[in-house]
Structure formats: C-alpha cells, structure tokens
Design goal:
By secondary structure, the protein is an alpha+beta fold. The protein is 49% helix and 20% strand. The chain contains nine helices and eight strands. The protein has a six-stranded antiparallel sheet. A two-stranded antiparallel sheet has the order 1-2. Helix 1 packs across helix 3, helix 2 packs across helix 3 and helix 6 packs across helix 8. The N terminus is likely disordered.
Length: 266
C-alpha cells in the first residue's frame, strides 16, 4: 500500500440527517496526502471508494468553490490555497493550543527534547503542535498536520487506552484484518502492554523509528475531547533510560496543561 494513500478506515454509515454529498466531498479532500500533489479522477475514485462519475461531479464543485485547483493539462486536481487557510484558522483559534503551546515550548527548550500534541482521526493521530528541540537531529521532521499510525506510536497507544470501548474495539478489529494473523499476534501484545501501562502509570512509550524513543500521556478536555501529549528524543540510550528520565516531566507537563485549561477565564 502506498504510504501516502488515504487511510483504510472508511467513514461511518450516514444517518438520515447527514448530508451525503457533503460527506463525499470531504472524502475527496481527505484523499490528498503529504507527498501527493496531483490526483486524477481515477486515483480519487480508488482512494475514496466512490464512482468516477461521482468523483468528477464533486471535484468540479470543489474547484468551483476554490478548495481544489484543476490542472487541465494533467487532467488532475490539487488542493488550493483556501484549504491552508482553514488549517491556520483552526490552529490560531484553538483554545487548547493557546494554552498548551507556550507550556510545551518552554519544556522542550528547557530539556532540549521534542514535545508534541495530537488528536485521533480514524486510524491515525494528527499532530496539532510539534516543537522540535532535541539535541540530536532526527531524519524525521514532524510538523503540525502530520499523521502517524495509531497502532505503532506512543501517541496512538495512549489514546487507545482512554478511547470509548466501542471505538477501540472497532479499530482493533480493523487493524487485525489489515495486519494479518502472524503480524497481529505480536502487535496485539504490544498494544495491550501499552494500554495497561497508560492506565496504571499514566503513560506508555514506543520506539517505532530508529533511535527515537517517545512517551505519551492522554489529556482529557471537557467531557469527551481527548488529546495526547508526547515527549521524544533521538538518542542511542537504552529506551528504559529515556523512559526513566522523561516519564515524570511528561506527567507534570500534562498536569500543568490540564490545570491551565480548567482555570477560570477572565
């Protein structure tokens, strides 16, 4: 599977009060991924599961409204500038980022580590903020908006520990089908251990990239919104040494963010 392809997870069946045309248009926008500039109707149909005729109509509408740009010579589409402005509006208007961002930056600079905040979207975690201050430079440059797999990362595994049971079970079933019996057996053990660690200790850790160790802890905002905070370093130290060094600062930072979010606003 192409790493830049749209996520395997499909949208939930539409309720009677949901607009099917709007949902399908959103699926077309979701099909564009980092590293993908142009997509034709055929590729979009494959990524969304929609018919070519439906995709053609949706793309024309999205181009007319300015969200897609039609490259006529290539007979394909690319995302247009207003999509970026929507992302900017989300980040600049987020009360969570307004509170968490300065605290995250101060901690990253103080300890010379990487600090990130993410939220779940289907079978991936989306970085809302990523502050890179590790002493060693990693080949992996993480930025806001980047997606990472739920099942492989500390971010995703920490989220699984506090996700609604029905949502967690549905995602695990999907991952089991995708991975196959042999791979799923070992992955399931890792997921179960991370979920247990998050519930017992408040955090879990993972090292799915070479020499990168990351710890994560969930942060609940209000009654239902869940974000995940992580700290990571690029180091040749044993993972347990990194965990011992960063677990307390991670939990302390999460508490400062939670307390600040719960403080009365003037």
């Amino acid at each position: 599977m192409n790493a830049n392809a749209a996520p395997v997870a499909k949208p939930k069946p539409a309720r009677a009060d949901r607009n099917r045309s709007l949902e399908r248009g959103i699926e077309v926008l979701r099909a564009f991924r980092p590293g993908t500039d142009l997509l034709g109707n055929g590729e979009l149909a494959e990524r969304t599961g929609l018919s070519r005729a439906t995709v053609s109509r949706l793309c024309q509408t999205l181009a007319d409204t300015g969200l897609l740009q039609h490259a006529r010579s290539e007979r394909a589409y690319r995302l247009a500038a207003p999509v970026l402005s929507l992302a900017h509006a989300m980040r600049s208007g987020s009360p969570v980022l307004a509170v968490a961002g300065p605290l995250m930056r101060a901690e990253a600079e103080k300890r010379r580590i990487n600090v990130g905040l993410a939220a779940a979207d289907r079978d991936e975690m989306v970085y809302l903020e990523s502050i890179r201050s590790s002493r060693r430079v990693s080949w992996r440059n993480v930025v806001a908006g980047q997606r990472v797999p739920i099942e492989l990362t500390s971010l995703g595994r920490a989220w699984l520990a506090v996700a609604p049971a029905s949502q967690r079970q549905a995602l695990l079933a999907q991952l089991r089908r995708r991975r196959g019996a042999r791979e799923w057996k070992s992955l399931r053990r890792e997921l179960e251990a991370a979920i247990d660690s998050t519930r017992e200790l408040g955090y879990c850790w993972a090292s799915w990239q070479p020499e990168v160790v990351a710890l994560a802890t969930p942060i609940r905002v209000g009654e239902s919104a869940v974000y995940v905070l992580n700290m990571s370093v690029t180091a040749s130290d044993p993972p347990q040494a990194v965990v011992d060094r960063l677990s307390a600062p991670l939990l302390a930072l999460a508490k400062r963010i939670t307390d600040a979010l719960q403080a009365p606003r003037d």
